[in-house]
Amino acid sequence: MASPLPMGPGFVPHMPFSAGDNECEKYFDLFDFGAWERDQASTPKHSRKSSSSSKSSSSSPSSSSSGLSSKSKKRNLQHPEQTAEVRENGACIKCRIRRVRCDLRVCAQCKKFEYLCIHEQLSTIGPVFINIHDKAGERVRRDDLTGRSVHALVTFSETDASAPRMRLTIQAYDPEKGSRPNASNCAIPREHIPTWDSLVQWAGEQILFEDKTPFLKAVETFIMTYSGRGNEGSQLPKFGLVNRVRQLTCMFKIWMTQHSSSGHSNGIYYYRPPKNDTVRLPFAVHEELRHIAKKAMESLERDILSELDACMTQSKAVQPFEKPLLWVCLWQLLFVYRQLLGSNLPHAGSHRCREVTRRLYTALVAYYTGFFHTPKSLNLELDLSRTRMPQDLRHRMAVLFQNILDTRVGFYQVMQGSKNEFDTLISSTIVENELKKLLKRRSRKSKSSRSTKSSDSRDDYDDDDEEDY
Ligand SMILES: [Zn+2]
Ligand SMILES: [Zn+2]
């Protein structure tokens, strides 16, 4: 279970609706995030232990008979008391994942990077979003929305007409003054509050529309495609996790978009067909969208962290065919928190909140290195052969996944050159280790293809001189 942080000055839990406030109660009725979550969630909830992630336990027993997992299972069976002891004593993240004995506060597994020896659960370190003090869009009057309504097409881009748009209804409070929505005279009418789905859809399209680093783009494209087809994919491995990570990423995009008028084209706009122009979304409406996004993020983050914690337990152990999906999700989450840490948002900037975010980010790095530390984990292969995914789509997913792997080196090299402290953290732990091996392989590969026949030597690596970390 997620446990919020202890409170401190300037660190107010986000309780959006004060009791007894009529307007707010109505608002709350409408914003039944629990119901939304149930609607959206195609997989069971984090908090119900018995029901969660039936996929991973029920899916293909054949798969567990190979590779890492069987090795670790055997080890566990040999030392059941030891494993239990490790868990009780609060083994560090890496040891929990690797199922080895965790001895000291800075244990043998973490000697190289002591700060990665973290003994708490991810959900205990986080969550971050619920503790960010941002009351934007909380209190909205809706009863006196009696003026004209406008069906606006909202967009993240002021100038680019090809940017994705979402239909949004805005209504003025006063019929007299309702002709032009402005900062204070309008809101989203109750019956037109956008659904979680429509927001995710719109922001997701925008995310893919924007230019960015190829690796990041490849990760995002994979995540949006894998889980972006509604419940059709709910039987896929780690679908629930990927889907929540997708939704979190999309909501984060909306929440991070500020209503600033400072030079940047950052903002949310709406398109007015009669005039064929694009204007900034009225402040109040913009903040309502951000508020919806924040509430969604709070719930999604809680579920994601709980699920990641569960993956460290023996009963929910990650199967080999689930690993590539976990790997992609971790990168996407690292990107989200990295962006939050890199931002100068006033509400994310409180010292305490940054500390929590930084710790969670560090813990995610530890988590990553717990799972993906062997040379073998550089050869992740997406295996959807046991799923009912149509073959063309399966092929497409394989191509998208390969694209992530192929763009790694370029991204890792950029990270190595970065002076940013959060990039340095990834760089010294994950990147340095992986890049060394990837470059070695690359040079070997090019040598072998130059010198000898037409062999496709993808699996031809000789990794025995490569150390674990
Ligand atoms: Zn340990
Ligand atoms: Zn450790």
TrEMBL record:
The keyword Nucleus applies. It comes from the Eukaryota. Residues 41-83, 439-469 are annotated as: Disordered. One of its GO terms (molecular function) is zinc ion binding. Residues 439-450 have a biased composition (Basic residues). The keyword Magnesium does not apply. Residues 50-70 have a biased composition (Low complexity). Residues 459-469 have a biased composition (Acidic residues). Keywords: Nucleus. This is Zn(2)-C6 fungal-type domain-containing protein.
